[in-house]
């Protein structure tokens, strides 16, 4: 959808609280990945695009930006965030809350941030913006571009990131993006497909299977957004040679294990993922320590990360169901 004719959500909470920066595009690899973010009903997608008139409110003080992860949309990535938590954040930021929907498969985090810079320039010119950011998964890399390399994407001196919250972000990469590793494990992972439950657009194992199908014909074109998370790839290595940032970094990670009494599907899914990660702690998508620890990289390790232990049973797509995450967001984001 292009957002035309859509009803804005500035009435979704009964008052003008919320607007969304929409990036409704068609990903050339996996189809539609850009949509909308809703305030009180995260299943809704009928939100009008952020427009120039909305800028007047956003520039009135620190703003809060939500950035989703791989294959997600804002309304799916953050739909599990409790309404009470979101309402409190909206109140703290006096309605200056918006979300970025963007390509995650076919372009790099730098290109995502460059696109955002172009939109902000078109709407606001050289007006400055102070941001706090809540990011999930690959969205944290986009947030880091804004925090560390604003000048590179045309936002130098205009955007200041105050706090960047990275939840399950592959700062040290993820083996799921290593095409050589995926190729070796293709047979093992595809054998497990019958046990992998449908978990919507946030289930990156489903994405892996899609990529594995492309591997059979050697088709890697159009996967730049995924390859950007390859631990051994040139993009991530250059990305982590960073000048650093004045932003405060926060991190939430998990070392997942299926809870007692889990279904065969959950156990098989975890076993298949542990094969990929050579049994290192992970949340089914991202290595646990790689969220907050990147050797030799300015700004890391992130101080005082919140890490869910195995017994918590928190996987990559369930962070926002947990009250601990809401508590940390409210602790870290003053408005």
SSE diagram, text form:
Elements: E1 26-27, E2 31-32, H1 52-58, E3 63-67, H2 74-77, H3 83-92, E4 97-100, H4 109-124, E5 129-136, H5 139-148, E6 159-167, H6 179-184, H7 186-191, H8 204-215, H9 224-227, H10 234-239, E7 248-254, H11 264-276, E8 306-308, H12 323-332
Parallel strand pairs: 3-4, 3-5, 5-6, 6-7, 7-8
Antiparallel strand pairs: 1-2
Structural class determined from secondary elements? alpha/beta
The level of helicity is 25-40%
Instruction: Count every helix, treating DSSP H or I runs of 4 or more residues as helices.
Output: 12
- Quote the distance from N terminus to C terminus: 32 Å
Beta-strand level of the residues, as a percent range?
5-15%
Number of strands: 8
Strand order of the largest sheet: 4-3-5-6-7-8
The biggest beta sheet reads: 6 strands, parallel
Shape: globular
């Amino acid at each position: 959808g292009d957002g035309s004719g859509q009803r804005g959500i500035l009435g979704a909470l009964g008052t003008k609280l919320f607007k969304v920066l929409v990036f409704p595009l068609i990903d050339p690899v996996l189809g539609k990945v850009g949509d909308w973010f809703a305030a009180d009903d995260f299943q809704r997608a009928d939100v009008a695009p952020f427009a120039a008139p909305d800028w007047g409110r956003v520039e009135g003080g620190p703003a809060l930006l939500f950035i989703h992860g791989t294959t997600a949309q804002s309304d799916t990535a953050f739909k599990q965030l409790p309404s009470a938590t979101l309402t409190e954040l909206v109140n703290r930021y006096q309605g200056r809350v918006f979300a970025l929907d963007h390509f995650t498969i076919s372009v790099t985090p730098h290109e995502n941030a460059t696109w955002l810079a172009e939109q902000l320039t078109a709407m606001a010119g050289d007006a400055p913006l102070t941001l706090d950011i809540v990011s999930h998964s690959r969205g944290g890399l986009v947030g880091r571009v804004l925090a560390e390399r604003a000048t590179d994407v045309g936002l130098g001196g205009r955007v200041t990131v105050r706090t960047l919250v990275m939840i399950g972000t592959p700062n040290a990469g993820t083996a799921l993006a290593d095409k050589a590793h995926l190729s070796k494990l293709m047979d093992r992972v595809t054998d497990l497909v019958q046990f992998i439950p449908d978990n919507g657009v946030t289930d990156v194992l489903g994405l892996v299977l899609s990529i594995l199908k492309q591997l059979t014909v050697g088709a890697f074109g159009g996967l730049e957004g995924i390859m950007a998370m390859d631990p051994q790839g040139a993009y991530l290595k250059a990305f982590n040679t960073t000048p650093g940032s004045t932003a405060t970094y926060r991190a939430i990670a998990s070392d997942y294990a299926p809870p007692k009494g889990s279904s065969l599907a959950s156990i098989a899914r975890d076993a298949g993922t542990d094969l990929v990660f050579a049994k290192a702690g992970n949340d089914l998508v991202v290595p646990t320590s790689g969220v907050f620890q990147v050797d030799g990289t300015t700004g890391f390790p992130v101080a005082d990360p919140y890490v869910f232990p195995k017994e918590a049973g928190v996987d990559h797509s369930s962070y926002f169901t947990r009250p601990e995450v809401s508590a940390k967001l409210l602790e870290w984001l003053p408005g």
